[in-house]
Structures are given as C-alpha cells and as structure tokens.
Design brief:
It contains 15 helices and 31 strands. By secondary structure, the protein is an alpha+beta fold. Helix 14 (659-678) crosses helix 15. The longest helix is centred in the C-terminal third of the chain and has 29 residues, at 536-564. The radius of gyration is 27 Å and the shape is globular. The two termini are 20 Å apart. Residues 37-143 form the Aldehyde oxidase/xanthine dehydrogenase a/b hammerhead domain. This is Molybdopterin cofactor-binding domain-containing protein. Residues 1-17 have a biased composition (Low complexity).
Amino acid sequence: MSNEAATATTEAAPAAEHPGHGLGASLPAADARAKTEGTFPYAADLWAEGLLWAAVLRSPHPHARIVSVDTSHARDMPGVRAVITHEDVPGRDSYGRGTADRPVFASEVVRHHGEPIAAVAADHPDTARMAAAAIMVEYEVLDPVTDPEQAFEAEPLHPDGNLIRHIPLRHGDPDAVADIVVEGLYRIGRQDPAPIGAEAGLAVPRPDGGVELYIASTDPHNDRDTAAACFGLDSDRVKVVVTGVPGATADREDQGFQLPLGLLALKTGCPVKLTATREESFLGHTHRHPTLLRYRHHADEDGRLVKVEAQVLLDAGAYADTSSEALAAAVSFACGPYVVPNAFIEGWAVRTNNPPSGHVRGEGAMQVCAAYEAQMDKLAKKLAMDPAELRLRNAMATGDVLPTGQTVTCPAPVAELLQAVRDFPLPQLPKDTPEDEWLLPGGPEGAGEPGAVRRGVGYGLGMVHMLGAEGADEVSTATVKVHDGIATVLCAAVETGQGFTTLARQIVQETLGIDEVHVAPVDTDQPPAGPGCRGRHTWVSGGAVERAAKMVRTQLLQPLAHKFGMSTELLQITDGKITSYDGVLSTTVTEALDGKELWATAQCRPHPTEPLDEAGQGDAFVGLAFCAIRAVVDVDIELGSVRVVELALAQDVGRILNPTQLVARIEGGVTQGVGIALTENLRTARGLIRHPDLTGYALPTALDTPDIKIVKLVEERDVVAPFGAKAVSAVPVVTSPAAIASAVRAATGRPVNRLPIRPQAAVVTNSGPYGQ
C-alpha cells in the first residue's frame, strides 16, 4: 500500500448526466477561487481609519473569588485609550446562547479558566496586551468542582444552582427483563470546534450612538440582540455585518469575544479590532460536552432488544449555554436507530468549573452513539453473533417509534444502509513482510513491526435530528429580485462552508431559468434567518428562497399565460426558455422580462414541534437523518497505535442537490469523526486547560485521513422538507467514532470504553498472527 492511501478517496455510483446549473448539478462555490488564491476577505483582514487594538485579561484560575481589580497601571500606560470591567457594562451584564447566565466580565467570582475579567483598547496590539497584563487582580483561590458527579452534592457554583436540566425518559414496561444482559461504563472527552483561521472582529461606532460589529457570526441576529441588550441599546442601533467565515463546525464566534469589542468602541468612539490568539480561542469559546454514560441492555436469545437502561451525565462546564438542547438529543437518541420497546433513560446536565460546553456538530447524539454501539458489540459477543447481523435484527424503519413516543415518519432506511456497507468488499491485507511499503499504525515510517499489527472491522449506526427541537420556532425569510436579466438573493443565512450560497443560486437557476445569480452579503438589516446549524439553511432558508423564486416565476409567467389564455401551470422554464405544454408558446426568459424588475419575499417555517414532557415524551423533532459506517483499522497491539485503513459509508440524503458539495460535506464529517475517535481531547487538570494550542490539541491531518468509500446514498425524499433533502454533515461525525472504536475492539478484544482511544486501551499482551 503506497502513501497515496493516506489521502481521502471517495467512491460512489457515477452521477447521471445533468446540466451545469440548477438543482442536482455540481455548481462550484462562488468563493472557491478567492479562497484558493488567498484573496478571500476574512475577519482578521479588516481595517478602519483610526483603528485601535483590543486585548482581554482572562482568569488564570478555574475557580476563585475576586477580591479586587486595580486597573490604574494599565490606564496610565502611554497609548492606552480605555480599560473596561464589569462596571462599564451599561446594559444586561450576562449573556448565553440558551440561558443568559454567563457574565460579560466576571465581577465577584471566576467560574472557569480563561473567564474574561477586563478588556483594553490601545493604539498598538502590543500595547493592548501589555496593558491587559498590567491589570492587577487579587484572587482568593477556591477549590474547583471538576467532576460532574460531584456537582450534585457540591456547593452551588452559580445562583441558578449546579443542575441545569434533568430528563427522566420513561417508555414502556419498567419491569421488562430478558435473559441476556450486558452493562458498560463509557467516557467521552472534550473536543474543541477548532475553527480554521483566527477569531477576529471589528467594532465601529456610529454617529447615532450605536455600533456596527463586523464579525464572522453564524447567527447574526441573535448576536445583535445579545449585544444590544448588554450595550444598553435598542436593537436597531446595533448592526452585525457578517465578514468572511472561514468554516464552522459549531457557533463560529464566541459572544464573549464580541461584547468587549463593542463596549470598547462605544467607550472610545473609535473603531476597535480584536484578533484572538489560538490560546484565547481555546479558553473562550464553548466545546463539546464531556460525557459519562452508564448502560444496561437487555436482549432475548435471538438478539432482539427488550429494554435499554441508561444514565447520561453531561459536563456543561461553568455555564448552561445550549446544554439543555444537547441533553434532549442525548436522551432521545440514547438507544440509537434501533427498535427498543422499553427504554428508561436518566439524563442530567450539570455545571462545573471546567471549560464551558455548548453547540458542536452532532452534540448529544455523538456521545450516546459511541456508548450504544459499544453495547451492541458486547451483546453480539455474548450471543456469539455477527455484529452486523445483530444490528440488522433491531434496525429502525419508517413507522417505528422513538423512545420519546414520536413516530418516525421520515424515510429511515437503516437496514438498507447497514447492508450496503456490510456487503462492500473489504480492503486487501498487506503482506506480513518488512520489505513491503505500507503504512504502519504509527504513520509513514512508523515505529513498531508489521508482525505486531492486527486488523479489525467494526460497525456504527448513527442518527441525528435536523433543525431545532422541542418547540423551537424555525423560520427564515428570503427575497429574490430580478433586474436586467440578473437575479439577486437576499437572505441572512450565513455561508459557513455548508454551501448555502451555492444552493441558493441553484434554486433560482432551476426556478427562473436565469444563469447569473448573486447572493447578497449578510447583515442584520435583512430579516432573520436563524443560526447555521443542524441543516437549517438547506431546509428553512433554502425553502424560503424557493418560495420567493416561485412567486417571481408567477409574476414573470402571468402576462404570457393571460395573453395565450392558459394558466401559468401549463408553462415551463427549461434552460432559459419558456414553453407551453402544447408548443404554441416558445420564448426566452430574457425576452419575457423585457427590462422588468420583479421581486418577492417569502418565509419558510417547518411544522411545529413540542417540548419533552416530564417523562421525556413528545414529538420534539422535525426530521431525522441516518448513517451506517463500516470501519477497517490496523492496530499495533504492542504500541497501542491505531491507523484507520478505510471507512465505508452509506447514508440517507433525501435528495442530492449538489453532488460535489455533498461528497465534500460527508468527507469533512468523517474526518472530524476520526479526530474525535483517535486524537482530539482538550485535556484539563483541575479545571486548567493544558496545552491550549494546536500542538497539544491534535487535529487529524491528511496523513490521518483514511480511504473514504461512499458506497450508497439513499435518495428517498422527505416529503415535509423542501426539495426532500436531508442534512448530511453531522451524522457522519456522530457515527464514525463509534465505528472506529468498534473496529479497534474487533482487532484487540479490548473493551474500548473511552474516546478518544488511548494507546493503553489498544495494547494486547497475548496475540496471534496478522489479522487475527
């Protein structure tokens, strides 16, 4: 096997012939050229006349009482224009994505390592950093609560207490039992979203006393409203302009990063720029919830699941953020895409003095997937059954019922997906000779001997929900304008790398037959479109664009239909031409426009959901997406090192809107899952983040990326979704870590109950020849 195998390759059935525009085409991203040439304007590139530079002083302690803060030395430094603390916050002094419990600046108590204490604006970035370091803070250091299990009995860390949410899910007969029982304890580490590029922003004061924030926001209207409340301003006096977002796998910009920026601009009357170091990003923004999971599965002798019991404990860190939503997903999907007639799940999210946790792709669902798939492996071993066969016997399908009592009405081809990856040919084993060039688990020229390598094959089935849940009002607004043969889309859906701007262009091309389509930059002068997560913008914002485009289409066709005495439904637009069903009418879109300016605005709002009740029951989710992955790994059982050889994936996608873009999203999700499984772990020691940099936090590189084989994409349209499409990037993230852990279990016989997989978990003392 050559080193070329270290780069990702994707195999799928060849796409049918398709025109170069509209839905179903692989239309390239509008910003692809600028990004590859290095001319794309990121937030860190911003500049303004009279610019000042900001720096933030952060707590070196995870838990402490603030005795005093002396800013006099910083204020007296030449070049310093302003120093602000909690006393300088004119409005609401706290914020949060889900719950507003996080202070803009700590005032009395520090609750996590890196919590902001003060901020400085100066005429040079070095001056700002030195001034921040010159602020004298006297702390009374307190013992941190870092074990989430201790949070139940510990003194309250916050006025709201330590318990954020408890969900006791009850489904079926509590007395149900079965002959086969397996138990397990599992731990999932803390992952960081590790956004590409520096987190940066620019705040510019306005003549009316307001401020404009130029930031790489993924939820600009929420950020605007939060900022306005903290600044003591009306929302119309704060404007958020979205600058180039260099990719996002979670909320891209920490609100605690934005707020000091705006406060300093308002105080100084000058533009202020803040560019966070990588260390500040690790300290400031939220991470994936570390999770402790206890499971007990009951099954009959044929391998049919009878009951699942579980306890799920999420470590929310110092503040609530979106922990309530993450817990709802974890509890609801704790049994996985399997038919479970009886389920009893206890879920808690608690505050600790660890770094804050929040929204990261696949939150809640990823943690439980790793645990329930480990349980399925244990059941298969105890029953002496093929792991894939056991999963097939319990696979969920459309019409089955979730443990929340909600009926699965969307396409759920779980068995079909699993069969596809199970039947896909396995990669060949390399010969057991040192002369052959192949990749050892330690990497190219890796340590260890080929004779110590064992190959394992494992499976993972995962599921995620799309859009918000539990009654969240998911709505988006879009406007489509046509003038001089050019269409423009105005929608506040932020392009974070998920491809929305490309999709919006394709929708308008398909609906109106206009090739040249522009998507306007995003700011909060436009109506809100909501956050860019969980496939929202494909569904809700794409739906709004489609409705607006169809309204413009009607305006375009009505005069022609009236002239020829037919309805607009009898006219069609194809390749820029308008034709009637009988061939009598044939003209071009350009001729029909004849210099007219047409526009329409529309909204899209999916069907409502409801909160889970006191027994964890309710129709909480709009839609679900599923994925099956078969992992093949090589493990050096002497060193405990792991190399993922191949990941074969099958996924239900509803409808393929852009084949190239879809493959890229799946590959990105799978690769992120490899990092979760093997390398990514933001380590802490008594609440202190260790090595907050990209040396201590190991992201997967191209050499860590396996062959990715997309063996099947099931296009069974979800009838309630616009275009019938499903979100594609989150469910591979959820599924691939579980599949990799399953393969390592198969190779070593070890339990592998922790992610990321530590070397000692894969070491075997007694072993046989290669591949056994």
